[in-house]
Amino acid sequence: MALYALGDLHLSFQVHKPMTPFGRVWKNHERKIEKYVNRIVKPEDTLVLTGDHSWGRKLAECREDLEFIERLPGRKILLRGNHDMFWDAKKTERLNQEYAGRLFFLQNNFAAYGDYALVGTKGYTFEGPFYLDRWGNITGWDEEREIQAEKLVEREMTRLRESFRQAREAGFRKYILFLHYPPTNILEETSPFTEIAEEYGVTAVVYSHCHGERRFGDSIRGDFHGIRYMLVSGDFLDFRPALVLP
Ligand SMILES: [Fe+2]
Ligand SMILES: [Fe+2]
User: Matching InterPro entries, A to Z (predicted)?
Assistant: First the structure.
């Protein structure tokens, strides 16, 4: 039994959204996903997909993408990404009823993995715009948008606290924290997400959303204050699921 994670599949079996303009790594990326996930993940394993599953805007436009995910081996747990328009934040329970036994949608709830609780939410990160001088140094940013971002961070923190609360109430003391957005923005060294990770003593924080060489270093990777931070964006991993726990 092992726990794997992979993010940002960006599937589009029903809508026209070619990913090749975003780089060669995206060429036939769904075939790579199928090949590597089938090679790496065993039926008894758990695979957490950290959001941006589908380009469809409504559930009806995502059915084939979700069926593709269903056919992948192992137990599949899905996190909400910023592009997952099919997933109304208030309708997570309804999705869980409809896909019971096939897919699990992680938000305002948690999933058990051995003696670990898998907790998580979409998260949020301020992404600018930033203003640069002619050498490329940041000299300022859109402060109005930053204030708006703080509100969105707070809303996501409410959801995340609920996920932790339920897991702790069920008796769990070991946690893996999943986010779609990176835990910190490029101006921050810590954030409410890193703080709650430390408060609960999580083993790892797993996130994605960052695409392309220039963005892979936007947030924390590796060990920080005793916690392992893992970036699992599909293009970062060339669509090979990353091992979170053996
Ligand atoms: Fe993405
Ligand atoms: Fe994203």
Answer: Calcineurin-like_PHP, Metallo-depent_PP-like, Pesterase_CT488
